[in-house]
Each structure stands twice: as structure tokens, then as C-alpha cells.
Design goal:
The complex is a heterodimer of chains A (260) and B (282).
Chain A lengths: L1 H31 L7 H12 L3 H23 L8 H39 L2 H7 L4 H39 L4 H11 L2 H29 L4 H31 L3
Chain B lengths: L9 H4 L5 E12 L2 E12 L3 E5 L6 H8 L7 E6 L2 E2 L5 H8 L2 E4 L11 H12 L4 H14 L15 H12 L6 E5 L7 H18 L2 E5 L3 H7 L2 E6 L2 E6 L1 H5 L4 H7 L16 H5 L5
The chains are: A mainly alpha (260), B alpha/beta (282).
């Protein structure tokens, strides 16, 4: 009994100790962000690496998700004679939920894991320590640009996912399944509210972007400087981000849409 | 080259006994394990001082304490009169601009060319125009014999070349002190000779103070003015290389002469050999 208590107690303490370090790490990164104004090139480089290079996976995934969503929703709606509601159904699904959540999960798998691996390898090859010994703060030069790039990129990637998803849904619904084009778009325009739906979706993607990038850079920075350590950190990034995004999605959805 | 490697100690001959680094009662632990257990060290200005000892004895830890990457649990550590553990982050960063460090792996930035690596501290800490930075980088690379390789990437370098570039970067800001972490480990004899020559020559020509962490006895004996032997977190012996050879410490003799058995026993503690073979009851 005591052994189990000791085991769970140790695990719990370890979890909270790590969470505390992650919070201190985040505060130090945020405090160093203003210095990026002196080195805009660092941010631009990371925006390309984290954001622009994620475009194709986001675009293709958005397209296929939109097409499948349209197909699935049509099969259900047509039974109720509500096929003309296909437009707002897919738009609301994408803008409120699927866009932010799936974009965050894809971002974590592609860019987040790459950030963790890169930072972890820099730690393992003593590049971060070398930078510190040259009196350059790696939190400002290495971590800060990557964090800010992820924070900026995620909402844009989520918007691209939703937009291309809607186009894919339109292609399937209107082009292939024969839903009236006017009904598809006009009902979408009527039922999708900018503040309640689009802005809330943007808020979600901003929160997911911050959390996903925070986890990615912290896992890399905190990784054991060995091959196994970097490998474990990369896996942790994807897993922890998935847990965090899905958990936060429920909380945010309850706060935003729970009283309707 | 021979005159350089004779270990001529210009600072000591000039009567300058001022210590750039002074550690008193230095303690450091990792968890429950004491790494440094009351270490006193003096590193004179202008000298090449080596910290030697078996693996895991705290040599690299000592370098990290001097550089402020770790904080001791007790004791004082003065670098150029400043107590490093008491410095704020800003003060520590100012002090580090006057230090250079050559890591065992080189620690070069893998996405920058050799030229960009050496130029990095100059661009970060000075407002020098690009033309002047270019001249300085070329001079530093020429000093280590790699001026012609400046457009290569770190992945295209051999291990020895990477360390030479790391050395050029470490002296880019003309520091007062350079620390070397295992500079000879895993290198071929020619590269070892080159690095030995560079450590001694740069130390004397640039007026540096050099701290070398190594367990390569022959190499450091040839270039060091003073050697500290660490074991079990304490300084076991110290002195000029020729004086250490005369030391009456059995441990120092075992280490310096690479003897297989002695105060550090060959056999891991166990019961009597015959009893074990015959499987007698304990």
C-alpha cells in the first residue's frame, strides 16, 4: 500500500515540478520576445519553416476532410429533406471545431515535432550551451522566434484548413451530389455568424497555437541530451499536444457555446 | 614549435602571481552525490592550467561552475575579482563576453558556415562594420590554420578541424580567458599536436589565461604551467608538471604513470578469490 502511495506521490510531484519549470520557461520566453524587434530576420525564417512549409499538409488535409464531411453530412441530411443545409453544416463544423483542432494536431505532428527535434539536437550537440557561454541568451535567439512563429502561424493555418475544407465540401456537395449552389452558399452566409462562430474559431486556434508551440519548444529545451532523450521528447510533443488540444477544445467549446 | 612547447611560463617568470580564478571551499552536488567536496584552486593570469582526473570526477563540472552555467552549493568562486555565483544574469553575461570556451564537441552552429560561426559573437556583441568583421574573422581563422575553409559547413569538417574553428570562435572577442573541455579526446596524433601548439601559442601571444580539462597526461604535461589532480571531489595534488612527477601521493603516481592497480584498485570489491571459486559459505 505504502509502495503504491510512494509511487503515485513521486509521479505527482514530478509532474508538478515539470509543469512549474515549463511555466517559468514560458514566462522567460515571453519576457524576451520584445528583443525580436532587433532581429526580425530570425522570426521571418521561422515563419517560413513552421508556417509556410506546413501549408501543403494543411491544405490537402483540409480539402479531404471537407470532401468527406460533405459526403457524410449529405447522406444524413437528405433523409430529412434538408440537403440545402449542407453549406452551413460543413462550414460550422469546420470553422468551430475541425479547422482549429485538426490543424493543431497536424501542426504538432509536422512542425511541432520538428521544433522539438531541432532544439533537442542543438542541446545534445552543446550548441545552446555554446550560445550561453558566448553571452547570448538561447531563449531569446532560438526559442523566442520559434514560439512567436508558431503562435502567428497556427491561426492562419487553421483558417486555410477551414477555407479549403469548405471549398472541398462545395466541390462534393454542389459539384458531385447536386446540392443547389445558391442554397449552399446563401444558407452558409446566413447561418455562420462572424463573432459567434468565426471569431470563436480564431480564438481556439490562437490558444491551440500557443499551447502546441509551448509544448514543442519546452520538450526540446528540456530533453535529455541523448538520442533516446530527443526521440522521447519528440514523441511527448505529439502526445501531450494532442491531450492538451482536445482537452482545451472541450473547455473552450463549453465556455463559448455551452449556454446555447 | 619546440620553444613554444617547452612550457615557458612568462607570467610566472614576470613575478605576476595574481590569480584570475580563485575557488575556495567549492562544493557541488548532483542529487545525493557530491561531485566537488571542498575544492580550492588558484589559476594564475597568463598561465595554462590543467585540471586532470578520472572520468566523472567533476572536471567539466568545475568549468561549468567557472562559466556560471552551474551554481555551487557552497564556497566562493572569484573570476577576475567577481564572485560568479552572486552575479545577476546580466552581470554574468557581461563576464562571459570576456571568456571563451571550446566544447568537446565543438558546439558549432550546424546551419552556419565556418565564417558565420566565427563572426557570430562579433555580430552579437559589437557594432563593427561588416568589412572589419570580415577582417577579424579571417585573422582568427588564419591563426588556427583554417582561413581557406571559411565557406565550409560544420558537417563538412573533421573532428579536429571543428575544434579549431571552435577555438577561433572562442577567441573572436579577444577574451581574457579560454576554457578547453577535453580538447584532445578522440583525435589523431597530428591533430593533437596542432591543438597543443595552438593552446600554448595563443595563450602566450594573446596574453590569455587558459584552463584545460583533460586526462591526457603526456599532452597536458607538455604545455601546462600548473596541473591540478582531482579525485573524489577533492584536489589530491597540484603543481608544475615536473613537480607532480615527484609527488609522494600514491594516487597521483598511479594516475600519472597509468598504472593498472594501486589506490584505485583493479578488482571491484569482492570476497576472497579462492573462497569464491570453491563456492565456500560466506
Amino acid at each position: 500500500m505504502l509502495t503504491w502511495l510512494q509511487f503515485f506521490g513521486k509521479k505527482g510531484l514530478s509532474f508538478f515540478e515539470r509543469l512549474g519549470r515549463a511555466n517559468v520557461f514560458l514566462l522567460r520566453v515571453l519576457a524576451g520576445l520584445p528583443t525580436l524587434a532587433l532581429h526580425p530576420r530570425l522570426l521571418v525564417q521561422q515563419l517560413y519553416f513552421v508556417g509556410a512549409l506546413s501549408f501543403w499538409i494543411i491544405a490537402v488535409s483540409g480539402l479531404t476532410v471537407g470532401m468527406v464531411l460533405s459526403l457524410q453530412m449529405y447522406n444524413t441530411l437528405v433523409d430529412f429533406g434538408a440537403a440545402e443545409s449542407l453549406g452551413p453544416v460543413v462550414a460550422l463544423s469546420l470553422v468551430r471545431e475541425l479547422g482549429p483542432v485538426l490543424a493543431a494536431l497536424l501542426y504538432s505532428g509536422r512542425a511541432g515535432s520538428a521544433l522539438t527535434a531541432e532544439i533537442g539536437l542543438m542541446k545534445a550537440t552543446e550548441q545552446l550551451a555554446g550560445m550561453e557561454m558566448m553571452a547570448v541568451d538561447p531563449l531569446k535567439r532560438v526559442i523566442g522566434p520559434r514560439f512567436l512563429a508558431g503562435f502567428i502561424s497556427m491561426p492562419l493555418l487553421a483558417a486555410i484548413f477551414s477555407a479549403i475544407g469548405i471549398l472541398g465540401a462545395a466541390f462534393v456537395g454542389v459539384g458531385l451530389l447536386g446540392v443547389d449552389s445558391g442554397a449552399f452558399w446563401s444558407q452558409m452566409q446566413a447561418k455562420v455568424d462572424f463573432h459567434e462562430d468565426i471569431v470563436n474559431g480564431i480564438i481556439k486556434s490562437v490558444v491551440f497555437g500557443a499551447v502546441a508551440t509551448w509544448i514543442a519548444v519546452f520538450e526540446g529545451y528540456d530533453a535529455s541530451p541523448t538520442t533516446e532523450g530527443v526521440s522521447r521528447a519528440t514523441t511527448n510533443t505529439v502526445v501531450y499536444t494532442a491531450f492538451a488540444v482536445l482537452g482545451l477544445d472541450f473547455v473552450l467549446t463549453a465556455l463559448m457555446f455551452g449556454d446555447k | 614549435m619546440n620553444s613554444v612547447l617547452d612550457g615557458e611560463n612568462k607570467a610566472m617568470m614576470a613575478g605576476d602571481t595574481d590569480s584570475l580564478v580563485k575557488a575556495r571551499g567549492l562544493h557541488f552536488s548532483h542529487g545525493d552525490r557530491a561531485i566537488l567536496d571542498g575544492v580550492d584552486i588558484d589559476i594564475p593570469r597568463g598561465s595554462v592550467t590543467t585540471i586532470m582526473g578520472p572520468s566523472g570526477t567533476g572536471k567539466t563540472t568545475l568549468l561549468r561552475l567557472i562559466g556560471g552555467q552551474l551554481r555551487p552549493s557552497a564556497g566562493t568562486l572569484l573570476v577576475d575579482g567577481q564572485n560568479v555565483p552572486d552575479l545577476s544574469r546580466r552581470e554574468l553575461f557581461f563576464l562571459r563576453r570576456r571568456m571563451g570556451m571550446m566544447f568537446q564537441s565543438g558546439a558549432l552552429f550546424s546551419d552556419l558556415t565556418i565564417f558565420e560561426n566565427v563572426a557570430y559573437p562579433l555580430r552579437e556583441h559589437t557594432d563593427l562594420p561588416e568589412e572589419l568583421i570580415r577582417d577579424l574573422v579571417i585573422m582568427k581563422l588564419h591563426a588556427v590554420g583554417l582561413r581557406g575553409a571559411r565557406h565550409l559547413m560544420p558537417s563538412e569538417l573533421s573532428g579536429g578541424m571543428a575544434r579549431r574553428v571552435a577555438l577561433a570562435r572562442a577567441i573572436a572577442l579577444d577574451p581574457m580567458m579560454v576554457m578547453y573541455d577535453e580538447p584532445f579526446t578522440g583525435q589523431d596524433p597530428i591533430t593533437v599536436g596542432v591543438i597543443m601548439d595552438l593552446i600554448r601559442r595563443l595563450n602566450d601571444n594573446l596574453g590569455l589565461t587558459s584552463i584545460v580539462v583533460s586526462h591526457d597526461v603526456a599532452e597536458v604535461s607538455a604545455i601546462s604551467d600548473r596541473i591540478y589532480l582531482l579525485s573524489n571531489g577533492k584536489v589530491i595534488a597540484s603543481g608544475a608538471p615536473q613537480d607532480l612527477r615527484q609527488s609522494d601521493s600514491a594516487w597521483a603516481q598511479q594516475f600519472l604513470n597509468a598504472e593498472a592497480d594501486g589506490p584505485v584498485p583493479f578488482q571491484y570489491p569482492a570476497r576472497e578469490y579462492l573462497d569464491d571459486l570453491l563456492d565456500l559459505p560466506q
